[in-house]
Amino acid sequence: MIGKIHKQMSHDSWLFSKMATPEYTPFVFLLLLFQSSVWGFPSCHATKPGMLNVHLVPHTHDDVGWLKTVDQYFYGDRNDIQHAGVQYILDSVVDQLLKNPDRRFIYVETAFFYRWWKQQTDDMQNTVKQLVNEGRLEFVNGGWCMSDEATTHYSAVIDQMTMGLRFLNDTFGHCGRPRVAWHIDPFGHAREHASMFAQMGYDGFFFGRLDYQDRNRRMVAREQEMLWRASESLTPPMADLFTGILPNGYNPPEGFCWDQSCDDPPIRDDPDLEDYNVDDVVTRFLHIAHGQALVYKTNHIIMTMGSDFQYENANLWYKNLDKLIRYVNQMQSNGSEVNVLYSTPSCYLQELHRANLTWPLKGDDFFPYADSAHDFWTGYFTSRPALKRYERISNSYLQTCKQLEVLGGPISRKGPFGAGDSETLKKAMAVAQHHDAVSGTEKQHVANDYARKLANGWAHCQVLVSNTLSSLSGSSAPRVYCEHLNISVCPLTETSKKFSVNVYNPLARPVSWPVRLPVNGTVVPVSQATAAVRRGRGYAVNELLFQVQAPPLGYSTYSVSLLQNGPPSPQSSPLPRAPKAVQNKSFSPQPSSLLSLCASIVTLRDFLSSLFCVCLSRYNASDGNNSESIQMSGAYIFRPNTSTPFIISKTAKIETLQEVRQWFSPWVSQVVRLYTDSRALELEWTVGPVPIGDDLGKEVISRLDSSINSSGVFYTDSNGREVLQRRKDYRPTWNLRQSEPIAGNYYPINSRAYIKDDKDQLTVVTDRSQGGGSIQDGSLEIMLHRRLLYDDVRGVGEPLNETSDIYPEGLVVRGRHLLSLSPPATAADTHRPLAQEVVLQPLITFTDGELHPSTRLEVQGPAPQFSGLQAVLPPAVHLLTVSQWDQDTVLLRLEHQYQASESKEHSQPVTVNLQKLFSTLDVLGVSEMNLSANQWKDEMTRLDWKAESGTHHTGVTNQLSAYSAL
Ligand SMILES: *[C@@H]1O[C@H](CO)[C@@H](O)[C@H](O)[C@H]1NC(C)=O
Ligand SMILES: *[C@@H]1O[C@H](CO)[C@@H](O)[C@H](O)[C@H]1NC(C)=O
Ligand SMILES: *[C@@H]1O[C@H](CO)[C@@H](O)[C@H](O)[C@H]1NC(C)=O
Ligand SMILES: *[C@@H]1O[C@H](CO)[C@@H](O)[C@H](O)[C@H]1NC(C)=O
Ligand SMILES: [Zn+2]
What we know:
seven-stranded antiparallel beta sheet, disulfide bond, binds zinc ion, binds 2-acetamido-2-deoxy-beta-D-glucopyranose, glycoprotein, 7-stranded beta/alpha barrel, metal ion binding, alpha+beta, Beta-galactosidase, Chain A, domain 5, Glyco_hydro_57/38_cen_sf, about 25% strand
């Protein structure tokens, strides 16, 4: 899956050939010596075969930012907001583990553990190593954070897992490798996450949250533990993951919370004192244990003894747990058949494996998550759309930064522009994957902190990028970064009369990309919407639009000169490949019909007059004043107060230039663009400040209505990778009682969604994670922005009411949807690459040129060019990671990006010649690793699990047959 490419040693050409199914491309080559010792499970306490064994798992759930920032949580700062200090938790737990070798603890979030570790003495570090070696302190999950599953992209999740797991392996070796993935808090679970965890070598996965109806059914059927078959493309058991649902979310059973933050009675075990309560505690405990055993399959059950930021004074917990174990087990001499022990998730998992049972098979995912009839956690799919976009482009920027670190060599980190690094952005991105970060469910000041950390990471990467580009191009001119090109702000292009534009493409195939630059010269006038959203940050009246081509893993340079004022002369068009009008071979809109309902009816003649309209509408948020439920819409929860969206305006004001500009209201507008040769129609939406003068929260959607006969079915991607089928008012694994016709039909969209019938497929590619659904046949709606006036009582304690210094009356958000319409059989060939170009977009940088006397805009280029690859990779292969690993090795991830049977042409095996991959690196040898690069591939042994036959659920079977019918 992953290899390290060694530089500077010669080697024969080496060919890698792809298997029959798409997958993370494996390649095998061993150079380094490695230990082949197989590590068993760490010392687990003995269990009793004839008894009910209760595994007590002491744990803390430490959010990498939520109500406080990650740093405030670490130090225990701002305890007025929430009492929580991770440094004290780790201090206290280590101290308590040393007091009794029977005690166990698990730790999850490496972002915190890493901070703590750096501050320990050698003695303390050695002590902790011993605790880890003895299995008394066990790492579970072990990523930098516990990532969100609905709003993250797989590329960023793999990176954050790699970072945490690498620290654990570097620090603790084999004994530090987590066996169990542990996502106790994320609000629903993505199939792609399970697939990644399987490929990262985890033996099992535990979580706490799933739909309440699903849970009830699984409890009765004893199906809370199952085998998740998490990919339709990988050959089982490659993406099979044993998955267990924890009994109390991740909390202790009722009455047994002994943290300093809890009020449950301690065990009072002095028989001489009046308030002796051991009998009562033991009786209550046995009752709970027997009850729990009824809804699980084996004679082993797990209890999570801990919760959010618990164990700051670990003595309270351990003192009582020691006693609980002693007194409950003492009852065995009176015939009790319950055995309690300190345990960990991997010890529990080992017992389940030993039980040698068959487990139900799960093929779909765990979205959406509802905790009761009117409480669907589908709002956070869209919450904080600006942060979601910033996180997504930061990923693109980080991949570019890491590539240029490799391509530039040591000069990238210490060069003419100073000391640069990719580490700062890596850490900021890793923290941003947390389930209260990119999810948008944190307090406002914490959201600001995530954004600030990302911005700081960008600054460090910019130095690195400048160093490398200067070294590769031989020009030491200062490099200028314009981060506000989406709102046509770039001081350099607005003022300079001659400048050059460098377009770096992080994809392994050439791209053609439209560039829009703010200028005072000729060409497309800046729209009113853009001028309004800039708020004094730029003054250019026009945009220069041209199409650039950039080679794989490389750049092209264009030079732009202002030659004369006024309109361009017809002979020398300043618009190479600019759109003539909103029209190309795939889409032929008729301007006259643009004024009808929803404002932009576009007739697609090429596709037998499938008619569709794009319409920006909104829901009014429930304020809780409702006969069915008092649940309000908030950061987590989506609950509109009616099931019909409000059309914001039946007639939009339309301007047709080289693009169609629509005004639905002063705070909702959209630009529709078509580029020559483009496979897609671009919809650039601008929403905000959302008015709240009427005391109503609002959730703005873009709805695409078409004549496609979609029969209640639509498709969404899972973390940007495989696509899952969705069906209205339906769940593949249980009989749904639908109680929220809109919110209960929303699913996460990370990069694309589509509807289709026999003839047409309409795909929407998004530029960030958003929520969406298909409420009517032929229709696809995507939520763009939300502004809410109430907290939804899930802990964040603030209404989602975003403002900023520049937008004090409400945040304005802009984004893009790319629409493509193709026959279903070939649609993937378009939307996969399209989505990828949006995820890994080119980096555009500028250098100022000498002042030029003339004043007409002219674009020249591309020249010069550079490509880090010797040849373009085959279309099926995506270059997922190129990153410096240590001094002489590079971490490389190649991925077969097509799903099984998705594309006639591309869902086929491919061959890549690694030896001839890079133009500037010699490949000396390759060692294959697991997906998270913390295990050598041939050391990877996972527990095997047997699936019950006949439990492959209908949703998945249908989906497979739908594919094979294409
Ligand atoms: C597991 O169960 C199967 C029958 O389902 C049996 O053949 C096999 O021997 C058992 N394995 C162990 C280790 O008990
Ligand atoms: C560009 O044009 C705007 C509007 O005419 C003007 O305010 C601004 O000063 C101009 N900038 C330059 C650098 O000429
Ligand atoms: C929302 O934000 C606006 C602007 O800061 C403020 O005036 C208003 O009181 C806020 N409303 C709520 C419910 O927080
Ligand atoms: C993990 O750490 C061990 C001990 O330091 C080392 O031998 C091994 O190569 C590391 N594994 C990987 C995949 O880096
Ligand atoms: Zn959490």
